[in-house]
Here is the input.
Amino acid sequence: MTAERFFCADAARARGDALPGTAPYGLVWVLVEHHAPWPANGYDGLALEPVTKSLLYEAARAVRARILLIRRHGRRPEDAGPRCWAVLWFDATGAHRQRWGTWEREEDLALAAAALGAPGDLGHPPVVLVCAHGRHDTCCALRGRPAARALAERWPGLVWECTHVGGDRFAANVLVAPDGVYYGGLDAASSVAVVEQHLAGRVHAPHLRGYTDLVPAQQAAVAAVLARYGPAGRHDYTVTGTTRSGPHWLIRVTGPPPHATAYDVEITAHRAPPHQLTCNGPATSAAMLHEVTSIRTG
Here is the structure.
């Protein structure tokens, strides 16, 4: 008898795995358009000219930037002309910066490495990245590509498929950058609704994994405030205080002026029972959960 195939996103939904507090930390992203099939380990697995590959890798590592391969939804020839690269910077003021360029020869990616030391440009719309990295995890392709198709039909200039962004079991995963907002558990319809609201300045809690400038407990606290008091802009709520005693956290989240209401969110962190968390990795792991125990007006 053939064993039933395991899909990590199906298992996560059956368990009711919590989304808040699961966004990986990050403030800088490097995007490299690549039309050929993506290796399972993304940029690291590309057979690029070694000196340039190492130059970009080391420049990214120096500023803790993440390198993601990107492509537009739909098949394209591997030699379809110049490809894009971009560097995206998060700024807590909301003045997010981007720098875009193109590359034809592999040596051209040195320009992306140099851009990591530049200030970047203002005025670009956010980039919508949908993880569709099937060689890394099956669910990222099965759930990510339909979401990418729906989003690309709605916003063709903003949407890219990308390599692994983390949290395979929450596919479809969408990262809006350089806003630094992770959404998960999406499908074609919900992804369009979520991104539409995001672009209109309303972050909703139900599909929110977290803000990438915050640690997991802070992410969970902001998501809890959004869930109770309604959607808000990306920078409307800020974390203004954090204390911790063992597994117990007290996070102060302050709302926008003129009222600037403060909310004290108590959170307890604990490990979930071990489960297989990815399609392609049979080993079990115990995910960290951040349970909100109370929200009080400060």
Summary: Residues 1-214 form a domain with the Glutaredoxin fold (CATH 3.40.30.10). The longest helix spans residues 138-154. The mean pLDDT is 94. The chain has one domain: 1-214.
